[in-house]
Amino acid sequence: MVTVGQLSAAVRSRSQSAIEVTQAALAAAEADQLNAFTDVHHTEALERARRIDQQVGDGTALGPLAGVPIAVKDLIHHAGHVTTAGSSFYRHTAERSAPVLERMESAGAIVIGRTGLHEFAYGFNSENDWFGPVRNPYDPSLSPGGSSGGSGAAVGSGIVPLAIGTDTGGSVRVPAALCGAVGLKVTHGRIPISGVVPLAESLDTVGPIASSVDGAQLAFEVMAGDDPQDPWSAAVEDSPEDIALAGLRVGLPTQWLDEAPATREARDAFQQALDRLSDLDADIGELAAPTLAPDRLGWTLSAAEAAAYHRSWFTDPDKRYGPEIGARLAAAMEVTLDELIDARRWQAGLVGAARRVFRSVDVLATPTVGHPRKVIGRDTIDVNGVAQNHRHVLAYFTATVNQMWCPALTVPLRDSGAPPHSIQFIGPWWSERRLLALGRHLEATDLIGYERPSP
Fold first, then answer.
1. What is the pLDDT confidence band of residue 239, given thresholds at 50, 70 and 90?
2. What's the pTM value of the predicted model, to 2 decimals?
């Protein structure tokens, strides 16, 4: 597999042209049977590729993503293009790109198209009533996860090596997990969210889905950084940090794990990964931290903010919502101020518990999802013979991380199924580079890695 870094290096060295790379990605996107894209930018992408090849020929210094084709979730504004947010009625033609896209294009990335998603990013299956369901590259009868399902499918199928999504409760990590890719959820405030249609701004993040840790790393380095126009953005100055597998302190939050809606297969794959880590001299231990566990109060946080954003549209008969989103928003509209205060108090306790835990461990480890196979059209997932709501199974391990505001890296486990199982490493605030370094070390051991689905 050619990594994002290798692909960009090939373009800059003229061993491969940006035109060739872009044409291949566009051909794959236009032949896509997964409904991963809402729009493909054929003419514009080729024009950008021609300019990059000309700059290479002129000796112009180019950025670290020069000539790399990428896909972008149809929730992120891109100058001159229409943002739909997966909605029946929202149509916004952007005059300016979101800062994350400005930074990606300045680094040489070529946007080949916009990817499908769960309506207004408020869900985990990308079964969209207005655009049709996005399908999983391993099995088209399965969901790719959500809400960034199109981005996950575009990477998992090999159309592009890198795509951009958003993550409010797992919407980068869940599609990455279900599509066999790498997903990075950043510390809240690390990457600007201005120019992105919000779901719940105090939890929203932008992040990469990539076919390798290298791709996630390069995208992170390009997108991260303060944006004075974004009230949630944080000015953080830090240096790259490495992390060794030998002596790595890995914490297992026992209550979080014990009460999880996870299949025996998911638990076995997770345990096998932990055993491999132990063989590599990582120090793995259980943590008794009952406060560090999911709670329904976490739903209240995102619901209250989603209700605030949608309230003026929700009663307008000309603004149609799909049945699932309509029901979820109707419930969100009922959240009271007292309930929101209780949820904020719970969140403060969760963050405090995380601060105490990270004094004794370098990372926390969990599976990414309880089961990677969600059948399109079914609201439930079978977990050891019990039908459970798909959102509970898919978001159980991811949503609490957003409520903690911490970063997390999701990576696929080799030889663990199709789709493969996935492991999530959660780090303390602003530790993205350490998590990515951990991911690179694990790729080198062959414990993790992207394997393109068979045709």
1. low
2. 0.97
The phi and psi torsions of 113 (rounded to 5 degrees) equal 175, 175
Please pick, among 151, 171, 233, 302, the residue that the annotation labels catalytic. Answer: 171
What one-character-per-residue DSSP string does 224-269 give? Answer: -S--TT-TT------------STT-EEEEEHHHHHT----HHHHHH
Set 73, 87, 416, 431: catalytic member:
73
Burial label, 314 (beta-carbon count in 10 A; 0-12, 13-18, 19+): middle
- Helical ranges in 131-290 per DSSP H: 149-156, 173-178, 213-223, 254-258, 264-279
Average pLDDT over residues 4-10: 97
The mean-pLDDT minimum among 101-105, 268-272, 287-291, 398-402 falls in 287-291
- 212 has catalytic annotation: no
**Catalytic residue among 147, 212, 233, 416, which?**
147
Q: Is 374 a catalytic residue?
A: no
- Phi, psi of 103, deg, nearest 5: -70, -40
At residue 20's C-alpha, the angle toward residues 182 and 172, to 5°, is 20
